[in-house]
Automatic annotation (TrEMBL):
InterPro entries: Homeodomain-like_sf (IPR009057), Myb_dom (IPR017930), SANT/Myb (IPR001005). It comes from Melilotus albus. It is found in: Nucleus. It holds the Pfam family Myb_DNA-binding. This is MYB family transcription factor. The keyword DNA-binding applies. PROSITE patterns: HTH_MYB, MYB_LIKE. It comes from the Eukaryota. The keyword Transcription regulation applies. Residues 9-62, 63-113 form the Myb-like domain.
Amino acid sequence: MGRSPCCDKASVKKGPWSPEEDAKLKEYIEKHGTGGNWITLPKKVGLTRCGKSCRLRWLNYLRPNIKHGEFTDSEDKIICTLFASIGSRWSIIASKLQGRTDNDVKNYWNTKLKKKIMSMNHSVEMKPQQVTLSSILQNSTKSSPSFSFTDSSYHHSNGSFTGSFSYSSTSSSLLSGNSSTSAAQESFIGDASFVQQNNIGSVNYIYSEVEDSEKLMFSNAGSVNGLWGENPLDYGIDEIKQLISTNTSTSSCNNFLFDD
DNA sequence: AATTAATCCAACCGCAATACG
DNA sequence: ACGTATTGCGGTTGGATTAAT
C-alpha cells in the first residue's frame, strides 16, 4: 500500500513562483507564522501551491537573512571540511554557514566546488597517496592553512565518537586569492555531539548516529585503486570523499583526514 | 546572427524520520 | 503498539542564461 500524496497534484500549481505568490506567502508567514502545518498553509494564504512547495520556497528564498551570491573562501573551507567528515549532509553543512540553505550548498558543491577541487587536485600532479584536503588547500594558497586533528577516536557500536581538530589560515585562499583570516576549533564530544566555535559564528549541532559511509571515513586506510580515472571530474561522492581523505594514517585512526 | 553546448539554480520528487491520534 | 499525516532531507530534473562555435 502506497502513501497518500501530500496534495492533489492535478489541482496544484507547479513551476517558478511569481512575485505575487512570493509576496502573499511572505506576508502571511511574517504575520501569522506557519501555524505548524505546511500542508494547510497554502489554503490559508490563498495559494494553489503544494504545502511542500511553500515550505521550500520560504526556507530557500523568502525567509529573512538568506544569503545569495558568491561563497567566500571561509565557506569553501567549511564545506570541504564537513563534506570530508560527514558526507552529503547538506542541512548540517548549511547550518554551519550563516544565511546559506542546504539547497544552496548542495548546488554550489555539485556545480562548482567539487569541480574546482578536482581540477585543482589534478593540476597538483601528486601521487594519489600524497593528496589530502590539506595539501589541496595548501596548494591553493601561498600562506598555507594548517589543519590538524587531535585525540580522535571512533566507536562503532553506538555511533559515538570523540575528538577535535583545529584549523587556521591567514590570507587565503582556496579559490580567489582574496585575503582573509580564519580560525576555528572543533570538537567531537560524547554521544556524537559536534560543537564548533570559530570566527565566523558559533553553531552547535548533534549527530544522531554515524552511518557506514562515515565509518569508512574514520577507518579508511585502504587502496585508492581506480580513483584516478581518465576524467578528473568524473567522480562519485564516495570517490571524492576518499580523495579528500586519502593519506589517512595507516597506523591508527588518529589523525584521520588531515595531515599535520 | 543563429545555433548548439555548457552551466547554473529553483523547484520537484520520493523516501525516511518523526509526530500524533 | 500501530497506522496515518506531516516534516525534513538529499537526489534529480528541467528551464533560463551564458558561452562557444
